Structure formats: structure tokens, C-alpha cells
Amino acid sequence: MIDLNIEHGMFLSAQLKQPVGGRTEVRASTLVAAAGGFEANIEWLKQYWGEAADNFLIRGTPYNRGAILKMLLAKGVQEIGDPTQCHAVAIDARAPKFDGGIITRHDSVVFGIVVNKHAERFYDEGEDIWPKRYAIWGRLVAAQPDQIAYIIFDSTVVTSFMPTLFPPIAGATIAELAGKLELDAGALEKTITDFNAAVQPGTFDHTILDDCRTEGITPAKTHWARKIETPPYLAYPVRPGITFTYLGTRVNKQSRMLMKDGKPSANMFAAGEIMAGNVLGKGYAAGIGMTIGSVFGRVAGREAAKNARN
């Protein structure tokens, strides 16, 4: 465990508590915090999401609990970012609670439809190009009853997306598939029948915003809409998979942390996920997380080194 000794926005020393009870004091002239957010801290997530957070799956380590972030905020560092926003994707509901990794993420949404536990669609599966929208699906599923949803498609698209760790659940009929998913068969059949009837003729191309769309149903599927009619019918159960949170420490252009009185800290800097809220408000585009880490990592390192020399 690390205790941060901070006074008036100045990092004084770090005390490293040893497991055997001893204590080692490490003195430094500058602090760069790059310790991540609190995505693995379910109790902290529940402060903003309520009991729904119990059904969240964490894509990474169980140890990223936000201890450094919490200490910094408690010591007078100004916070930034919406605590209810996060990078959250739809991952397989059969994945482990922690450390499922990228092999549990589902990228098949645009090739089918997504229904909740009542077999009802709840969002436009074809809203935009996938790299721009894949990270909204965790939050969308989190808003559904019991934080569970099902991606439904047919056998014509099984080679159109990257396979995941878990195989799809299959049924020779929609009713059989519904039974395996523990969904109401009549409700799922109606949802798919209504969807198929709304699909308009078009030229399918998942690399662009094509003209394959629906008319007359809500929500619409505005692109890549094709009928689900070729058995076997397939499905993936999905839950919210949390990658990282957006609540963090406010920084200036030099990546220097700002204190609650608005003044820059004397020698504290931040980079990466712990200050992601300075860049991310709602949503996410592919690669932004790595960009935040690399850009502000370089800025924070450069400025910290300059501060240490002075």
C-alpha cells in the first residue's frame, strides 16, 4: 500500500507499507500518477450505478480499485469527469467476473439485432461505423433489466466478424433459440418478424454507412439491416464489460494536476486513465485510450523531469 504525503498541492514523499509491517520511505521531488481508475471497485461503482453494478463484468485486473485516485482527491486535487461514464463494451455474459480480456468482446452487433430479457430491441444497432460506437454498448446493456441482453443473428453472417472465446448459442427455430436463452418464444418471434418486415432493399456494405435500413419500427436500424431468416438462428448473451472509468484528476496543458482552489500543484502530474476525464466526456472512439496514455505520458514525463531538475 502507498501513502501519499501531500501538502498544499506539493508531493512530499511516498511511504511504501511492507506486508510484514515494516515501512520504507522513498523520497522524490516529483510525482507522476498513472495508476488508472476504479473500474474493479464494485462498491465505488455502485455509488453511481446502484445495484446494477453487481452485474458488471470487469475486463481487466481485479486490483484496479482506484486507491491512488481516491487519495489524490481526498488530498485536495480537483476531480473531473462524469463518474457514471466509462469505456464499457458488450462482452459475453459467460465471461469471468475479472480478467476476461478482449477475447470476450462481441463485435457482431451490426450484423443482427440486440434484445433485452423481454425480447425487445432497445437501440439502433446500425447507428454508426463500429469503431465509433462499440464502446457505448456496455452502458446500453447496463440500462436494461438485469443488465443482460442478447445479440441475435442467423447463419449467413457467422464469418463476418471476429469469433470470441465462447461459441454462439444455436437453435433450429426462433422458438428453440428463445428456449435456450430463457426468453419468451412468442415475444422473440414477434420482434424478429416485425424487424424482418421493416427491412428495406439495399446494398449491404459494413465498411460504410450503407442504405440497408428499416422503416416503420422503433428503434430503427439505420444501416446494415438485413432479414434474420436463415437457420440455424444464433445468439450471444452479453453483459456490460467495464474497461476503464472516466472520473479522474483535473490537469492543465502541462499535465500538472490542479487543486480544488484552481491553482496548479507544485510537483504532481498525471497521465493515462487517471486523467481520462479531461478528454472523454461521453462515448469513445477506437484508440483514444492509448492516445491519452501516450500523449499525456510523454507530456507528464517531460514536465516532471523538468520540474525535478529545477
The description of the largest β-sheet is: 6 strands, mixed
Tally of DSSP helical segments:
7
Which class of secondary structure composition applies to the elements? alpha+beta
> Percent helix among the residues?
10-25%
End-to-end separation in angstroms reads 29 Å
Level-2 CATH architecture of the largest domain: Alpha-Beta Complex
Unreliable residue runs: none
Count of individual beta strands = 14
Task: Looking at this protein, list some descriptive labels.
3-stranded antiparallel beta sheet, alpha+beta, 310 residues, 22% strand, 6-stranded mixed beta sheet, 14 strands, Flavocytochrome C3, Chain A, domain 1, single chain, 2 domains
Overview of the structural elements:
The chain is of the alpha+beta class. The protein contains 7 helices and 14 strands. The chain folds into 2 domains: 2-33 and 66-85 and 246-309, no CATH class; 88-241, Succinate dehydrogenase/fumarate reductase flavoprotein, catalytic domain (Flavocytochrome C3, Chain A, domain 1). Helix 5 crosses helix 6 (185-198).
